[in-house]
Amino acid sequence: NGGRSWERLTNGVPDAIHAAARATAMAPDDADTVFVGLGDGAVWASSNGGESFAQVVEGASAIYHIAATPQ
Q1: Please, which pLDDT band fits residue 15 given cuts at 50, 70 and 90?
Q2: Cα–Cα dist 9/65, whole Å
Q3: What is the pTM of this model?
Q4: Which of the ends of the chain has fewer CB neighbours closer than 10 A, N or C?
Q5: 22: exposed, middle or buried (Cβ count in 10 Å: 0-12, 13-18, 19+)
């Protein structure tokens, strides 16, 4: 619905994450692919619209901007 409503999605994301989400992006060619960048340098990704997430980057500098490009 274009972001008019939100639902908290945590499947696959550990409860122990203490860093705040600082950036989000959706793949322009696949609305089910979502990326979330955190202040601790981690990036989490979902390929099923947020039903589950997996960490795809760790140990980077704090993530404040993130972009997804078409594959």
Answers
A1: low
A2: 20
A3: 0.76
A4: N
A5: middle
Q: State the DSSP string of 14-69.
A: -TT--SPEEEEEEETTEEEEEEEEETTS-EEEESSTTSS-EEEE-S-SPP------
pLDDT > 70 fraction of the chain, expressed in percent and rounded: 83
Size of the chain, expressed as the number of residues it contains: 71
The Cα 22–Cα 68 span in angstroms is: 15
Contact 65, 25 (CB under 8 A): no
Q: What are the tens digits of pLDDT across the range 18-39? A: 678 889 999 999 989 999 999 9
* Residues paired with residue 37 on neighbouring β-strands, in sequence order: 23, 43
